[in-house]
Design goal:
- Four copies of one chain form a homotetramer.
- With about 210 residues, chain A is an alpha/beta fold.
- Chain A has one domain: Aminopeptidase, CATH 3.40.630.
- The first copy, chain A, contains six helices and eight strands; from the N terminus they run βαββαββββααβαα.
- Chain A has a six-stranded mixed sheet with strand order 2-3-1-4-8-5, sandwiched between helices. In chain A, strands 6-7 form a two-stranded antiparallel sheet.
- In chain A, a hairpin with a 2-residue loop joins strand 2 and strand 3.
- In chain A, helix 2 crosses helix 4.
- The longest helix of chain A is centred in the C-terminal third of the chain and has 17 residues.
Chain lengths: ~210, ~210, ~210, ~210
Amino acid sequence: MKVLVTGFDPFGGESVNPALEAIKKLDGRIIADSVVTICELPTVRRKAIVALREAIFKIDPAVIIAVGQAGGRMEITPERVAINIDDFRIKDNEGNNPIDEPIEPFGLTAYWSTLPIKKMVEVMRENGVPASVSNSAGTFVCNHLFYGLMHQLCIEGNKRRGGFIHIPYLPEQVSRSPGQPSMSLDMIVRGLEIAIEVALTTAEDCQLTGGTIC
Amino acid sequence: MKVLVTGFDPFGGESVNPALEAIKKLDGRIIADSVVTICELPTVRRKAIVALREAIFKIDPAVIIAVGQAGGRMEITPERVAINIDDFRIKDNEGNNPIDEPIEPFGLTAYWSTLPIKKMVEVMRENGVPASVSNSAGTFVCNHLFYGLMHQLCIEGNKRRGGFIHIPYLPEQVSRSPGQPSMSLDMIVRGLEIAIEVALTTAEDCQLTGGTIC
Amino acid sequence: MKVLVTGFDPFGGESVNPALEAIKKLDGRIIADSVVTICELPTVRRKAIVALREAIFKIDPAVIIAVGQAGGRMEITPERVAINIDDFRIKDNEGNNPIDEPIEPFGLTAYWSTLPIKKMVEVMRENGVPASVSNSAGTFVCNHLFYGLMHQLCIEGNKRRGGFIHIPYLPEQVSRSPGQPSMSLDMIVRGLEIAIEVALTTAEDCQLTGGTIC
Amino acid sequence: MKVLVTGFDPFGGESVNPALEAIKKLDGRIIADSVVTICELPTVRRKAIVALREAIFKIDPAVIIAVGQAGGRMEITPERVAINIDDFRIKDNEGNNPIDEPIEPFGLTAYWSTLPIKKMVEVMRENGVPASVSNSAGTFVCNHLFYGLMHQLCIEGNKRRGGFIHIPYLPEQVSRSPGQPSMSLDMIVRGLEIAIEVALTTAEDCQLTGGTIC
C-alpha cells in the first residue's frame, strides 16, 4: 500500500511552510508496511487541486493526507469537514481572492473527512503530541484543497481514504513575528507519523468527543 | 409577511440565556412591514427541532431566524453553514450527549444559511454593532437546530428563508464568572433588529469577505 | 468633597477614546455628596502628567481616577500597580517612543493604587458590570500617567486617594475593526459611577482574590 | 564563575513541572566558562525563598536565574518586574492562599530584574526560540520567589545578578488537557542555555521594545 502526503509552498508572507518542512522528513518512510510518498502543491486555488489529482493518478495511494499551516493554532488538528466555498481573506500565491464562490459549482455543500480523525487525536495525545479535532478548515486554499480531495475521492467511489490535517507555526516563524503559538518540527513529524499509522491500521473510528458548543 | 425568531432556554449551568432575553424584546415588533413572532425552544436535541417545526406550521413565516448563545464570542455572528453531526461536549438539558451521530441519517452533509449573512454583518457594522460571519456553528444543540431548520426549509422547497445567529454572553453573566467577553442586551437587540430588516429587504447578498485562513 | 476623573484624547489611529466619551457623561455629576470634575489629557508622555498636576492644583480633589482605553480587554479593570518605566511599542501623539527610560529618574520602582480596587470590582460585579483587577497597566502612556499620579500623591503625603482604571473599546470602534471585545458606553459609565462611589465611601479594601498565577 | 538555576516542584494538579525538567538537563553544564548548578524549590510561599537563600549561600553564584511554569503562555518570557504582593488564586503546595499580603512587610513595592532581559529575548529569537519580555510575573509563588530573590540580591548590594524566566507547558502536559500552547523540552532547554550565556556575557542590556500598550 502507498500513502500520499502533501504540503503547500509558503504563503502569506512566510518564507517557510511548516507542512512542507514536515513532509520532507517523511518522504520514503515505511509506516505500517506502506511507503510514504510526498508531493508539494502550489498555494493557488484550482492549481492545488489539479496537482493533487495528478499525484493521485500517478502514485495510486490507498490513503491521502493533505497537510497545511494553521497560523495561530497550538495543536495538530485533523479537520472534520470541508465546505464548498472559497472566501479568501488574503490573496493566494497567484493573487486570487474570490469571495463566496463555490469550489465545485455542482458539488455537494460539504464532505466529511474519511480519515479516523478521533483515533488520530487519541493516539497522538497518548504519545504526548498536543492534538484536537477541528470543526472548520477555514475558507482559504487549505479548505479548497481539502474539498477538492474529498470530491475526487467521492467521484472515484471512496476506494481511497483521505483528509486534511492543520499544523501550527514552527518556532522559527514565531521567533520572527512574536506572540503566536508554535510547535517543534520533530513534534509535528511525530504527530504526522502517528496520523499515517492510525489511518492505515484503523477500520472504524473511536468514540471521543471532538465537539464544540459553538 | 411574518418573521419567526427563536431562542433557547438557559443551558450549561447558566440561569439566563441572552438569546431568550433578546427575542422577548422583539415580540410583536413591526419591522419592514412584517410582524415579529417569537418562540422559546428547549435546549434538547430533537425536541428543539420538533418545537421549531410546529412553530413554523402554526405561524407560517417568510423568514426564520434562530438565535443562540455563544459563550466566549465577542460579536454577533450570523452562521454560514450547518453540518449534519451531533458531537456534544456537554450534556443538553435532558442529559443527551451523543458523539458523532448524524442529525438526519439520510440528510445532506451540510446546508448553507439562506439569509444574507454578509449584508447583515455589513449593516450591523455601519450601525456600530460589532459583527462578523462565523464559519462554524459548533456541534451542539445550536448547530443541531440550525441543521434541522435548513433541512425543513429545503424539504419545503426553500420558499422561506432562514438561518442562525450566535450572540455573546450578557454582561450580567460575565460579572458572575469573570474573564469572558460580553455584549449589552440593547446592543444585541439592535443587532437582531438590523438582521431581521436586512433579511426582509435584501434579495441578493453583498460581496464582503467573511472568510478565515484556517 | 471633589472627585477628579481624567481621560485621554484618541491615540493609535482611533478617532474616539472611550475614556473621554465616558467621562463626559460624568461631568458635574453628584456622587456620594461629591462633585465630579473631568479633565481631558493629551496622550503624550510628560505633558499628560503636567496637565494632570495642574488640574489637581486647580480643583483640589479628594479622589483622582484616571481612565484609559485598553484595546483587547473585555472588562473594566482597576489597575493594581504603576511601574517606573516607559517602553512604548507605538508612538504617543507627539511621536515619542522611548524604550526602557524611567518616568521619574529618582522615583520608586513602583506605586500601588490607593483606590479600593477589590471593592470596586466586587460592587461592579454585583451590579452586573464585568470587571476584574489588572496586575499590569502596560508600559505606555496609561502606565506613565498612573505612575506620575501616584508619585505626585506620594509627594503630597497621600492626603488624596488615586489610581487608574482601564476600560474596553466601544462597540463603534470594534465595528470598524472587527474581532475585538467591546463594552457599551452606558455600561462603562455605570462602572465608573460605581468606582467613584466606592472610592468615596470605602475606608478599607475588601478581601477578594484578584491575582493571577502568571 | 557559577550560575544557579532553580525550578519548582509540580503544582496546580500537574504531575510534572517543565521548569524542573528543563533545569535537570542543564545541571553541571559549562556555559561561558561557568558551571551551572541547579536547585529544586518547593512551590510554597516563604519556604521557596528560604531554600533559595540557602542555595545562594552554599553555591555563591554570580548569576541566579529562577525558572517557573507559565500555563497558557506560548513563548519563553523573561520577567521585567517583581511586585511585593501575594494574591494567590489557587493554593500553593502547602495550602496557603493569602490575599493581598506583602511578601516583605517593609520591602520596596517592586524590584526590576537585573538580568539583560531584552538581550536574552533578542538572542533567543535570533536562534529560532520564541521569546518575549513579560511585564507581569503574576501574584502567585513565581512572583513571590522572584521578589524574594531580588530583595536578597539588593540587601547584599547587588553584587550578583538575578531574575526570573517563565516557560510554557510541555507538550505532554497539553496532550493530557488539550487546548493550551506548549513548547518542546529541547526548545525550552535551548532557550535557557541562551539566557544563561547572555546573562554571563552581557554588561549592558540592548534597546529592544518589550512594552505593551496595556
